[in-house]
TrEMBL record:
Residues 4-105 form the Rieske domain. Transmembrane segments: none annotated. This is Rieske (2Fe-2S) protein. It comes from Isoalcanivorax beigongshangi. InterPro entries: Rieske_2Fe-2S, Rieske_2Fe-2S_sf. The keyword DNA damage does not apply.
Length: 112
């Protein structure tokens, strides 16, 4: 288990998501209602990345994380799928910490 600096906290905008490539895996960070949420960029249905275009993770109203492949919708706060073929499953959350204005994540539980 190791920690990595993801970005400065002020680089993440309210109501927006951003993707980051970390070696073989991709991570997404989204801020909603002032709260930061971090997940592995991996859909539990097919085991593929959620997005086709860079940083395009949210639905049109920025209320849900969406899978571009089959339209599954995930709650931002919990990562739980509320609509789509993986209903009831969850995105894999990543533990994060904000220190000295930077977002640090703990690399563990990466999807296979």
């Amino acid at each position: 288990m190791s920690e990595v600096r993801l970005c400065a906290r002020n680089e993440l905008e309210e109501g927006a998501a951003r993707g980051f490539q970390l070696g073989a895996h991709s991570v997404l960070a989204v801020v909603q209602d002032g709260q930061l949420h971090t997940y592995w960029n991996w859909c539990p249905h097919l085991g593929i990345e959620l997005n086709f275009m860079p940083d395009q993770f949210l639905d049109d109203q920025a209320q849900f994380i969406t899978c571009a492949n089959h339209g599954a919708l995930f709650e931002i706060e919990s990562g739980e799928c509320v609509s789509g073929p993986c209903h009831g499953e969850k995105l894999v959350a990543i533990t994060h910490d904000i220190r000295d204005g930077d977002v640090w994540i703990t690399l563990e539980n990466a999807p296979a």
